[in-house]
Specification:
By secondary structure, this protein is mainly beta. It is built from one helix and 13 strands. The longest helix is centred in the first third of the chain and has 6 residues.
């Protein structure tokens, strides 16, 4: 199930880019319509964007201190794993880079998992989209040139985001054969002006 602007969800190919991903699904807070800025991107002008006048995400508002979010794109589905671990890769990017890092315009991405936790209890909309080896959520203020810079690329090629992350992996333990609910969400923070997005690698669910 998808909630958000229809033009904010699409597919991408990584040919001619430095995404580090071959292909997959892209979700943004603007539009993925090809407009001359590369194979896919939210806009075709530096520091610009598309405001969809769409609602936000209460889950994302929660991980960024309760700040209001806008133009959320939310993709969710049930998933039954056939092993004890699930992995997938993604790239986060934003037009907010780098002017608005460490400000209230802290656009964010979250991956929320619900289902049985092999360690005991349950995942309950648990956000697993974190900066590697930290408990920090994925936002423009947690990966940038001054913090966790090893995961930041400031010269994107082939699309119009001002900055992107390197490919990041989420891996988590599951019970084989159990039903899990996945929810991917990306949203603008404070206003809906500058766009942010996430590229989910195709065929990376293993």
């Amino acid at each position: 199930m998808y909630n958000g602007s229809p033009s904010a969800l699409g597919t991408f190919t990584g040919t001619g880019t430095n995404l580090g991903l071959a292909s997959g699904v892209v979700m943004t807070t603007g539009t993925v319509i090809n407009n001359g800025a590369g194979p896919h991107g939210p806009n075709n002008q530096t520091n610009s964007g598309v405001d969809n006048n769409a609602g936000g995400s209460s889950l994302l508002s929660g991980i960024i201190g309760g700040t209001q979010t806008y133009n959320a794109s939310i993709l969710e589905f049930d998933f039954i794993p056939y092993s004890d671990t699930v992995r997938f890769r993604y790239v986060f990017g934003s037009e907010e880079y780098t002017t608005w890092i460490n400000t209230q315009y802290n656009d964010a991405f979250g991956f929320y998992l619900t289902g049985p936790n092999p360690a005991g209890g349950n995942y309950a909309s648990t956000n697993l989209a974190l900066v590697p080896n930290t408990t920090l959520p994925i936002t423009i203020s947690t990966i940038h040139p001054g913090l966790n810079s090893q995961y930041y690329i400031g010269t994107p090629v082939g699309h119009s985001f001002n900055g992107i992350t390197t490919p990041l992996e989420i891996a988590f333990a599951v019970n084989c054969g159990a039903i899990y609910h996945f929810k991917f969400a990306v949203a603008d923070c404070v206003d809906g002006i500058l766009d942010t997005g996430v590229f989910l690698e195709g065929s990376s669910f293993t």
